[in-house]
């Protein structure tokens, strides 16, 4: 009986984490560049009640008797499918069509990665710097902040699909500025550590960042100006998952109630 109590309790804890994950997905349904997360489970240890041995009559049993001891959360993985492209009125809004990430410089000097291309030009010491909404510098293909001289009119800057910045000359012909927005890929995006503000941090599990501009072994992503990548959360799927998790939570709670009632009946046998 006690075994069933603990087993059902692990199920309730696991389903609570599952609901937490679903709630986080739903809360970020309008977050730019957000990737939906999926909860994965694994069974706990099994207890051997009878081993696969010979019975009292000398007959070999084909299988043993094992009782599972519950479940636990194995991992919470992100699904890096492409989100819908949403038109933006800002000329400094960029969406990535592909597997790449933008690179930004954190306040601690480290490099972080994001799919959120809602950038702005902000005043810097040497001109105008392309930055995130939080003011973090956006990096180019050489891992340097993108800073343009004050002589450039920001509204006239265009960006090609390969991330190059262009500016019209006196004859209104677009000329490259020699600056390219950095786009990077990872062999294992699920190995990235998730941070706040839609940022990811490189880890040993994700592998080193692959610069698309210098590596010909990866399929290059497209940078689309005037668009933002929406969240890939499917609300209907998340609502169904929430109902399933809620029912599983209720079933585990009923198992605890049933075990408790059976223990009470066993205790009443003394009377």
Structure description:
With 271 residues, this protein is an alpha+beta fold. It folds into two domains: 107 residues, no CATH class; 145 residues, no CATH class. The protein contains two helices and 20 strands. The longest helix is centred in the C-terminal third of the chain and has 34 residues.
Brief summary of the model shown:
The protein has two helices and 20 strands.
Q: What is the helical fraction, as a range of percent?
A: 10-25%
Write down the Rg.
Answer: 27 Å
Based on Cα principal axes, name the global outline: elongated
The unreliable regions are none
The major β-sheet equals: 6 strands, antiparallel
Order of helices and strands: HEEEEEEEEEEEEEEEEEEEEH
The largest sheet has its strands arranged as 16-17-8-7-15-18
End-to-end C-alpha gap? 20 Å
Chain-averaged pLDDT? 90
- Count of the separate structural domains: 2
What is the overall number of helices? 2
Percentage beta strand: 25-35%
Kindly state the number of beta strands. Answer: 20
